[in-house]
Design a protein that fits this description.
It contains 13 helices and three strands. It has about 375 residues and is mainly alpha-helical.
Length: about 375
């Protein structure tokens, strides 16, 4: 039933070099942005760096594992993968199993570490949706036969993520899936109807949680509450602005001295802007643009529909996440709590990102780039 396609080429070494370069810069910047807080909290300035290197090591092993396994394998197990991801999203909501951080019950503790099921769902849903669209693409223009079933699946996952709640991850998931469905050939009229419903639903989600309203008002005028909801974005802008063209120099950030909360996470790009300046920030954006380009080329040259949809889904997920994170850092959109792929400190996010990159590299082995 599933035809195994023989690999003829080596992986895209340019794509691999970009990924490893981002990881290297990420490790350097995680240390540079966190050593002050790590020394204060844990009496070990290398605390976050050591854990980041551990996550990088696990993620790189995962990346090369997925790079070696033919991508067509995951099509066979797409239903099992999706079911497992839904199961994890359900059990994280059970008190005593799910761990709460920052007001969101999004983690499951495993020993000294924790995993975030919503990160698994992003990749799991891409794998399943790629399989579904590769088979049902001829029906995607039909609302009942193609568009609606995929829509129900996406918003079922989104609904479970919102119960945690985790709006940022939910937005990335929905945005990625909508790109995949649109590329598959869904009718624009269906998306316009969905957009109307989505706007109403988005407004209701904002109104249902006071902290989301506070984030919106803080985005519009952060100086209205400079020590409260507007604090993060103000401190982020204080980091990016003084960086100027060349930056203050590596390790010379001022904002990491307890001004910008946990700068090694969502706001690591603020420290990049402060220490490496406009040129450093532009260079990082250039690396992400190169990753996007090589990923799109791998998708376009993939030998079958499943490979194309899988590659496009992974590239879309990474690109949307980068755009949201950097937009938050420079004050273009409200704070969402989205990490910067390959650069931000993290466990589940970094590991799953590298596993996704491994799948993309495997697809590139079947593409003549």
């Amino acid at each position: 039933m599933f035809r195994r396609i023989k690999s003829k080429y080596a992986p895209d070494y340019t794509l691999l070099a970009v990924i490893l370069s981002l990881l290297l810069v990420g490790a350097v910047m995680v240390y540079s942005s966190s050593y002050v807080w790590a020394e204060y909290k844990y009496a070990d300035q290398f605390f976050y760096l050591k854990r980041q290197l551990l996550f990088c090591g696990i993620g790189i092993v995962g990346m090369f594992f997925f790079m070696a396994i033919p991508y067509s394998t995951w099509k066979k197990y797409s239903k099992i993968i999706l079911f497992t991801c839904f199961f994890l999203l359900l059990i994280v909501l059970i008190p005593g199993i799910g761990m709460e951080r920052g007001g969101a019950q999004s983690w499951i503790g495993i020993g000294a570490f924790s995993v975030q099921p919503s990160e698994f769902m992003k990749l799991g849903l891409i794998i399943y949706l790629a399989a579904y669209l590769s088979v049902q693409q001829k029906h995607i223009t039909s609302f009942k036969k193609g568009f609606l079933p995929s829509l129900i699946l996406v918003f079922a996952a989104f609904g479970l993520i919102m119960l945690q709640p985790d709006l940022g991850t939910g937005v990335v998931l929905v945005g990625t899936c909508m790109v995949m469905i649109y590329i598959a050939g869904a009718r624009l009229l269906h998306f316009l109807g969905l957009a109307g419903v989505g706007i109403i639903g988005f407004l209701l989600l904002i109104l249902s949680a006071p902290y989301r309203i506070s984030r919106i008002t803080a985005f519009i005028n952060p100086w209205e509450d400079p020590l409260g909801d507007g604090f993060q974005i103000i401190q982020s802008l204080y980091a990016v602005g003084p960086g100027g063209l060349m930056g203050l120099g590596l390790g010379e950030s001022i904002q990491k001295y307890f001004y910008l909360p946990e700068p090694q996470n969502d706001f690591i790009f603020s420290i990049i802007g402060e220490e490496l300046g406009f040129l450093g920030g532009t260079f990082m954006i250039g690396l992400f643009a190169l990753l996007f380009w090589r990923g799109i080329k791998a998708a376009l040259e993939a030998p079958d529909a499943y490979g194309r949809f899988l590659a496009l889904g992974i590239v879309s997920m990474l690109t949307i996440q980068v755009m949201i994170n950097i937009s938050v850092v420079i004050g273009l959109i409200p704070v969402t709590g989205i990490t910067l792929p390959f650069l931000s400190y993290g466990g589940s996010s970094l590991t799953l990102t590298l596993c996704s990159a491994g799948m993309l590299l495997n697809i590139s082995r079947y593409s003549k780039l």
